[in-house]
Amino acid sequence: MVATYGPSGLTTKVKSLEMHHESILEALPGDNAAFNSKNVTVKDRGYVASKSEDDPVKEVNIKPVHKMDPTPFSKNLLCVILEKPSVTQQRGIVPLCNGLDVIQQAQFGIGKTATFCSGVLQQVDHGVVECQALVLAPSQGQRMLNIRSQFPSLARSSAHLPPTNNYQGGPVNRFASPPPVNQAAGIVP
């Protein structure tokens, strides 16, 4: 198989494919697979791999936004948009709010959670009282704590969208029928 790596755009032959130190023939979306490529180091190839014959992965040139233009955002989201966004927010909020997938890697405390929460909140229809977004987070660690504390406060910018928290395998059958208005299941962190 020939793979194209992103964001570098490098194309090379894959020597072997492994998952959990065992050789496999195929990797599916979501699999944590390791690629052994000919004459290419991990540092040189990038972070995302795709088949070269299909639509190969490519870098999207996203221009940083140094001051947020309120035009493309819903009025409910404008309550939480920052006037001076961090570098992470400069490159992530606009693409996420436009429905694009974004992968970001950054240090702790520079706005990743607010960036991803903004993308979800922009796409939620505030007139519909039912579950519209499901945010999954690790059950342990700092990321879960950040989402648990920040997402509800961001969602409260709209009185019509109170978040419902569901942690550690709690029941989800309450979403089968519309919940009472005062406990609307708009956002589930």
UniProtKB/TrEMBL annotation:
Protein known as: DEAD/DEAH-box helicase domain-containing protein
- List, alphabetically, the InterPro entries matched: DEAD/DEAH_box_helicase_dom, P-loop_NTPase, Transl_B-barrel_sf
Q: Name one GO molecular function term.
A: nucleic acid binding
Which SUPFAM superfamilies does the protein's record reference? P-loop containing nucleoside triphosphate hydrolases, Translation proteins
Q: Which top-level group of life is the source organism from?
A: Eukaryota
List, for all copies, the residue spans of the domain called DEAD/DEAH-box helicase.
Answer: 89-139
Q: Which residues cross the membrane?
A: none
Q: Could you tell me which residues belong to the region Disordered?
A: 158-189
